């Protein structure tokens, strides 16, 4: 009996020593291996230490989220974490990691990008918000030669050659350092898209083929059109199903928003002249989806494409009052036009 108790105590003591040693190593002694590549990591305003710790572990920046949370609690630094984009080397010990994530930030600038804004719209917001902003640098950061492609970000790997980041910059409210570059801003927004999709339970497969058969790029392209064509989450789900049905049966999408993307207009019903524009983005003239997104869609539009509401409708229009009117047949659609678009 006594011998058994002594053995148990010895085991517990040994386990405690091992755990203590592991904790001390992770907290103070660990250091990045030579040649490690820094990882971009975003802390969002108001995130708890628990959430931050778990995400650090998911990104391979921590061995144990629980150990890190204990260290933060022991050092009393829970309230010191700063929001923003950080470049972190895998293998940092807890002390160095906390130091990096709690260091004082420079003056910040808050910017809000509404759903459905284009890269050009975002450029105008940034130009009005940052004294040193350069439209040329924004074009390089978000264009077809963006440095983010070389960074190997998974969700960008399926973008066709010649396409930029239109559709991949998540619309939200951000706080950036006053000295933030276009590259940092674009990278933060792409990482936010990835994070928000994960939070919404959206699984992005390794091959970027979504559950509905669309590629990730095609999904964002359709979501960008839905964002422009419908205003409410409910209507977005119906409109998404209509467009998916049209794609399935080989019917042109005939989305006014894609023509407006070409002309820069915002017409709810585009003219016959504009419908005749020759372009792969003119979905009145070209079958299927355009080459890429026409805006940067929000989460409601993305989820609408992934989880549409099944419907018998094949046509829709928006009244001057912003109300959606649906129709099963073209004749019904024409009647709706005569009734609501006089």
Q: What's this, in brief?
A:
With 342 residues, the protein is mainly alpha-helical.
Folded structure, characterized:
The chain has helices spanning 2-29, 49-58, 65-75, 94-102, 119-129, 135-142, 147-150, 182-199, 216-229, 233-249, 256-263, 272-275, 299-306, 330-340, and strands at residues 39-43, 84-88, 108-112, 173-177, 315-318, 324-327. With 342 residues, it is mainly α. It folds into three domains: 28-102, Dna Ligase, domain 1 (2-Layer Sandwich), CATH 3.30.1490; 108-199, no CATH class; 216-340, no CATH class.
**Helicity level:** 40-55%
Low-confidence stretches: 3-19
Instruction: Tell me, rounded to a whole number, the average pLDDT.
Output: 87
| Quaternary structure of the protein | single chain
The DSSP helix count reads 14
Strand fraction: 5-15%
- The count of domains is 3
Please tell me what the overall shape is: elongated
What is the H/E string? HEHHEHEHHHEHHHHHHEEH
Quote the distance from N terminus to C terminus.
Answer: 94 Å
Radius of gyration: 25 Å
- The secondary structure category is mainly alpha
| Main sheet specs | 2 strands, antiparallel
Number of strands: 6
Strand arrangement, largest sheet?
1-2
């Amino acid at each position: 009996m006594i011998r058994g108790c002594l053995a148990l105590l010895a085991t517990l003591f040994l386990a405690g020593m091992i755990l203590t040693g592991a904790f001390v190593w992770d907290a103070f002694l660990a250091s990045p291996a030579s040649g490690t590549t820094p990882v971009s990591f975003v802390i969002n305003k108001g995130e708890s230490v628990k959430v931050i710790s778990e995400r650090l572990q998911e990104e391979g920046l921590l061995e144990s989220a629980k150990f890190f949370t204990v260290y933060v609690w022991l050092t009393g630094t829970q309230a010191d974490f700063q929001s923003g984009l950080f470049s972190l080397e895998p293998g940092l010990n807890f002390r160095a990691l906390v130091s990096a994530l709690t260091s004082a930030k420079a003056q910040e600038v808050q910017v809000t990008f509404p759903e459905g804004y284009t890269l050009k719209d975002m450029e105008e917001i940034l130009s009005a918000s940052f004294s040193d902003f350069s439209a040329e640098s924004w074009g390089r950061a978000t264009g077809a030669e963006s440095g983010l492609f070389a960074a190997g970000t998974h969700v960008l790997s399926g973008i066709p050659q010649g396409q930029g980041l239109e559709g991949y910059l998540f619309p939200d409210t951000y706080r950036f350092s006053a000295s933030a570059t276009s590259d940092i801003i674009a990278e933060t927004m792409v990482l936010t898209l990835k994070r928000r999709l994960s939070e919404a339970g959206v699984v992005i497969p390794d091959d970027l083929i979504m559950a509905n058969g669309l590629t990730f790029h095609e999904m964002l392209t359709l979501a960008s059109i839905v964002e422009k064509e419908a205003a409410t989450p409910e209507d977005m789900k119906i409109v998404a199903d209509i467009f998916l049905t049209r794609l399935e049966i080989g019917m042109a999408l005939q989305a006014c928003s894609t023509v407006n993307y070409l002309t820069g207009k915002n017409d709810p019903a585009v003219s016959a002249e504009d419908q005749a524009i020759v372009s792969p983005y003119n979905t009145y003239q070209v079958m299927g989806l355009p080459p890429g997104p026409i805006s940067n869609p929000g989460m409601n539009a993305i989820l609408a494409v992934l989880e549409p509401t099944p419907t018998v409708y094949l046509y829709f229009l928006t009244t001057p009052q912003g109300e959606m009117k649906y129709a099963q047949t073209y004749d019904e659609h024409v009647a709706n036009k005569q009734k609501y678009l006089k």
